[in-house]
Amino acid sequence: IIKDKEYLDFLDWLKQMGCPKTKLTLAEFSNTGRGMMATKDIKAGEVIVQVPESNLVTMKSLEAIYGSRIVRAKKKINSHMIIALHIALMMQDPEKLGWLPYLRLLPKKFDTMPIRYPKELFDLLPPHAQAHVNRQRSKIMADYNSTLEFLKVNNDLLKRPLEYEDYEWAWLVVNTRCIYLDAKKQDTADNIALAPMLDFLNHTHDAKEYGFVTPNNPFNYALVDNDFLQLSIPGESPSAKNDKMDLLTMSGYFCDYALHRNDVSFRLMVAMRLRLINPFSTASVATQLEIAKWHNVVSGELDQISSENERLLPKYIEILCDALLFDAKKSLGILARKPTTFPVVHLQQLWIETRDIAL
C-alpha cells in the first residue's frame, strides 16, 4: 500500500473536490505496477468509486475553461487531442487550475509502452503489433500537428512552446487513463473523459479486458496475417492467389487472422478454406461452383466445400502454428541475451504467450 506524501495530498485534494470516500487505495503490484486495491470487503452491487461530474475532464468541461476557442475550432479538433493539450498546458503551469496533486501522480514517462520502445526492441514486436504502433504514432503526430494549428491562434495559452515529446506524453496519459461515458452521441470518440481516482483502477482478464501483457489471459491471441499471406500452397498460381485475396477483401474476410490457445478464429478458417481451392480460375465454371460452395460454408448452409478441402485444413493451420512457434523461439532467444528491463520482460511475456498459443 502506498502512503507517500503525494498520494496523501491527492486524497486530501479529492476530498476538497467533493469525491466520496472509497474502499480502495493505491498500491504497488510487482507485476503490473501501480493500481487500486480494496482495503475492505466490497458487497455485490456496491459502488466502488464515485467521481462527481464536475471532476471529469471532457470536451464539454473544457469549453467552460477555454470558451469560444474550442467552439470556433470544433470541426478541427477531437476530445483526445484537446484533453491531451489541456494536460500539457497544466504541466506548463501546474498550480494555475489547482490540479497539481493529480498531476503529480501521473506517470513520469511511458517507456514500458511499445510506442516508446527503442528500435532494437520495436523490431522484436510481432508484425501486427508493429503495424498497430505505427498507426498510433501517426495518430499522435496528426493530433500534434492539429494542436499546433489550434495554438497558432491561441498562442497566449502557452508558457513556452509545446514540444512533441511533451504532447506525446500528455496524449498517452489520455490514451491509458480515459474512460468512455454513456452519452447519447453518435461519435463515441468525443465521449471520453479523465476521471481522477477512477483512472487508477487496474484491469484484469477477469473483467474481460485485453491487456498487452496480461499474464495467462484466456483472451490473448496471436495474429498470423503475414504468415498466411506468405503461405505457399502447391498448385496455387500467383494470379489465383491475388484473385482469392480480392474475394476475401470483397467478402470482408481479408486479414485479422487469429489463433487462440485452444481455438482457431472463424476468419482464419474461412480464408484458409478459400486458399485450399485449387486449381482456381475465376473464368472457370468449376471454380465458380467451388466459390459458391465456399460462400455457403461461410453462411452455414454447408458444412464443407469438399472432403479434400477439410482434410487439408488442419495441415495448413499447423504450418501457420509452426511458423509462429519458430518466430517466438527466435525472439525469445534474442531477448534472453538482453538486460532485464520492463520492456524486455513485456516482450518476453508476449512471445511466451505466443509460443504457448502455437504449441
UniProtKB/TrEMBL annotation:
Molecular function GO terms recorded: protein-lysine N-methyltransferase activity
Coiled-coil residues: none
All residue ranges annotated as the SET domain in the record: 33-206
Species this protein is from: Entomortierella chlamydospora
UniProt name for this protein: SET domain-containing protein 4
PANTHER family attached to this UniProt entry: SET DOMAIN-CONTAINING PROTEIN 4 (PTHR13271:SF151), UNCHARACTERIZED PUTATIVE METHYLTRANSFERASE (PTHR13271)
Pfam families on file: SET
The organism's place on the tree of life at top rank: Eukaryota
